[in-house]
Design a protein that fits this description.
Elements (H helix, E strand, L loop, with lengths): L5 H15 L10 H18 L10 H17 L11 H6 L1 H8 L1 H16 L6 H26 L4 H11 L7 H12 L15 H26 L10 H20 L3 H23 L27 H6 L6 H6 L21 H9 L1 H15 L14 H7 L1 H14 L24
Length: about 425
């Protein structure tokens, strides 16, 4: 009998690992589509007993700003990765795709119920505000469902992504995120990458306006390559806007004009949750330019990550953001943790409140950014309007960190620059 080669033995061992490995969180991922079900149940209970159960109108804010962050701290982190040999099996398992798509029906039912409750004459104003924020919070998380679906290549998934975006009116995200943000991420040119010293409130109009303009430009250029104008049924922006208009129109026709403030408010709040997560994900991080003047390829170091379990379960592992940017079409269940990727002090849900308060945010994050770059302020994506102020403010800290880093290097060793390359981004030409 011939002896097996080391390579054959290794392959055999890997195949055995893949066959025996099971996703320990397989059924925990059901928390994602369970979120709109929780919202629907809370609003249903409120509808039955609005006086006794008034607090249920505020279920959404309580979940995202209180319960989920508390559970993150209580349960902690999970840094484990699936074995490489199991990744393909995970990708091919249709169970995970069904989980993501299951979010949408209950999302729509919850939004419609919220509109009906908020439009009733006897609903107190405080309750209307709570209902608006609850539905907006869950539709904001619905944008993450759209994010997962929108990175798939099939037309059905992209249409479902726009359907998940329609209640917030933010359907242009499906175009700009895939073909704008993924190309320009962690550069000063990206409206969705926040800068050191830039508050969320300054970032918000820049990303909303910049993202919308970028989506229009991207879609216009795509259609021009096909010899078509902007006003065509093939325009994905028009398709998405039509979905939103249809949803808002039907809901208003059934619930009456009093539903309009609710629909507008929940859409604005839901979209703002997407943008505050954008603010967190790349704050201050910047891809450097190589000798050829091109930005280096997107690396794990260009996204803030977190392994807090509960938020990852609700957000389809969005917090493993570095791997997502390295492999945009990789499904959530196969995303990996990188030891060298910069880590947030808490889960994304825990970072929302600090992001709303600039002084709190700067205290939590600015030193982390400067430490990440070992005191080299020139490598940071910095607010250009505050550059002189920030350089003066952090000069002493930067000098100390740079000196500590220099002492830690072996004598004579210098860090090699990262190779220049184009970032991985799916070509817009491939989308019909």
């Amino acid at each position: 009998m011939n002896a097996q080669t080391p390579e054959a033995l290794l392959k055999q061992a890997n195949d055995a690992d893949a066959a025996n490995w099971q996703d320990p969180k397989r059924y925990m991922w059901l928390l994602g589509p369970a979120l709109p079900v929780i919202g629907l149940a809370a609003l249903s209970a409120y509808a039955v007993a609005p006086k006794k159960l008034r607090a249920l109108a505020w279920t959404g804010p309580a979940l995202i700003h209180g319960i989920i962050p508390a559970l993150d701290r209580l349960i902690g982190e999970d840094k484990s990765n699936p074995p490489a040999s199991a990744v393909q099996g995970l990708e091919n398992d249709k169970y995970y795709g069904r989980i993501v798509k299951a979010f949408i029906p209950s999302q729509y039912a919850m939004t419609f119920l919220g509109a009906w409750l908020a439009s009733r004459k006897n609903t107190p104003m405080a309750d209307r505000v709570g209902l608006t924020l609850t539905v907006g919070a869950i539709n904001g998380i619905g944008i993450n469902t759209a994010h997962e679906l929108g990175h798939k290549h099939d037309r059905a998934s992209r249409l479902l992504a726009m359907a998940a975006l329609a209640p917030t009116g933010y359907t242009h995200f499906a175009v700009e995120h895939n073909f704008g943000h993924h190309k320009r991420v962690a550069t000063p040119e990206d409206p969705a990458s926040s800068r050191l010293g830039e508050s969320f409130w300054k970032f918000l109009p820049r990303t909303v306006i910049g993202g919308f303009k970028s989506a229009v430009k991207i879609e216009t250029e795509r259609l021009e390559r096909k010899g078509k104008g902007f006003w065509t049924t093939e325009n994905e922006l028009l398709q998405g806007w039509a979905m939103s208009a249809a949803f808002f129109g039907v809901t208003t026709a059934i619930c009456g004009r009093r539903a309009i403030p609710f629909l507008a408010g929940q859409a604005a709040y839901g979209a703002s949750l997407l943008e505050v997560i954008n603010y967190v994900e790349h704050y201050g991080l910047k891809r450097q330019k190589g000798d050829d003047g091109k930005y280096v390829r997107t690396q794990p170091e260009h996204s803030w990550n977190s392994n807090h379990i509960v938020t990852n379960l609700f957000l389809y592992q969005l917090q493993r953001h570095s791997d997502h940017h390295a492999h945009p079409s990789r499904s959530f269940q196969a995303l990996r943790h990188f030891e060298k990727a910069p880590q947030l002090p808490g889960g994304y849900a825990s970072m929302l409140l600090p992001a709303y308060f600039p002084s709190w945010w700067y205290k939590v994050m600015d030193e982390r950014v400067i430490t990440h770059y070992k005191g080299d302020l020139e490598k940071i994506n910095m607010d250009p309007e505050r550059r002189a102020e920030l350089l003066a403010q952090y000069d002493e800290l930067a000098r100390r960190l740079a000196a500590e880093h220099a002492q830690a290097l072996p004598d004579g060793q210098v860090e090699a620059p990262a190779p220049a390359d184009k970032p991985k981004a799916r070509s817009r030409k491939s989308v019909a």
